């Protein structure tokens, strides 16, 4: 698939000033200025995240109200129900809050809605469960900000709500005792991008402060918070980056029993990085809610016995294996379906439907289809007498708004810029397919249908050495808003030692100005002809380390190549 390359601009004056202050490579200073760290003090905080950079929890609106209500429940021996979503952010949130409250108050339980029987967010069934079992306070995590009617229903049954959420509020807010959400218009908390587990941690911090408990009482949950931040794809800047940095230290030094069990089962070796949380730990946790019941994920995280934790980890591992099988099969079926449709290439969208597909993986499949057909994509299956599914978008296109313009065909929909869920009568699928195509075709810019590689800076091979790479490593943890740097090298020669390995990959050997670099390009064998035919090439890459025969070398992780311009 052809990709467009976009080189980010940089401020040359600010870069030169920062280089004089730091005394490091000019290209690295470009990266820092681009990311907003344009002086010595900002750069020092960036490279050395510390607990002191975290904000005081009582800066968050309603924090005092939330603390007062929890402590009232402690004093009055009330039953507290911790309620959370079934994804990674939700299950880690519940695990942290449940463990903390239960340590200081015996009358605590937790509840997660079933993905298919109850759906996302606060459910009526969950409130009824609370009423039937005598709970008078519910703490909702990673959900609840839009549950106006359901919170009112709970109120009518004598149940109070504390909402810890990070999703964008509507103009009308639920009548909760306290709403902890930094995205409220009148919340002055300095950092707005916490995930649900992060908001829950701030409540735990506030309770520790009020109760006179040592920091260790909340620090013990940092590994779970790091998993939530990594999995929920919130910006890896500010407080999120600090929490992830501290959480990774805990993962590598003394992970919780549940995290340790998952690491052992996945044969995950230390040092663990954010990519391991995203691609190894998170899918196993998510699989519980996708394939079965998310409660077992919380049970894993709160387990204190190694053997019990391992049993829960094995259950999640099995769910994930099941998820991968469904994912692979459905993706193959969907791609075949698209290959057989004569107008696939002309369309600006992908909408596929099969009543037999597993509802729990349609969002993953939509992302897989975008890797092959780079278009706004919706994958639908049947649930009862309805078609239901997930949408994923391409860079820069608001798929939620496009779905909104088809709302008369839908029973329900929700989501955000790049991802959404929707439900409709099965008989509306074809009409929706046509309308969605028309809406997108009329509004999407042609270049949005070409995948973009955003390049941070041009670099010369002579600049790349172990010190250069070590400083790149100190920019971790990487994630949205602080991505791993992508470099461009121009006028690079093939040394003739480049070759195709394992049929699909290229093992590169490239030179520039007398400096040679090795590299690997996964699934790039179809571009090998460019190496053979072009006098010189331009190459886009990130940097990695390679261990071979006991020697560590820096290598290029090649993303794309083209004949030199």
Helical content class: 40-55%
SS field, number of helical segments: 20
Structural class: alpha/beta
The major β-sheet equals:
5 strands, parallel
Low-confidence stretches: none
The number of distinct structural domains comes to: 3
* Rounded mean pLDDT score: 95
Find the count of extended strands (DSSP E, 2+ residues). Answer: 19
CATH topology description of the largest domain: inorganic pyrophosphatase (n-terminal core)
CATH class bucket of the largest domain? Alpha Beta
Which strands sit side by side, in order, in the main sheet? Answer: 3-2-4-5-6
> What percentage of amino acids are in beta strands?
15-25%
Query: Which overall shape is indicated by the principal axes computed on the Cα atoms?
Result: globular
From the alpha-carbon coordinates, what is the Rg to the nearest angstrom? 25 Å
Question: From the 3D coordinates, which CATH architecture of the largest domain would you assign?
Answer: Alpha-Beta Complex
Distance between the termini: 19 Å
Key features of this structure:
single chain; 565 residues; alpha/beta; OB fold (Dihydrolipoamide Acetyltransferase, E2P); inorganic pyrophosphatase (n-terminal core); Diaminopimelate Epimerase, Chain A, domain 1; 3 domains; five-stranded parallel sheet; five-stranded mixed sheet; 19 strands; globular
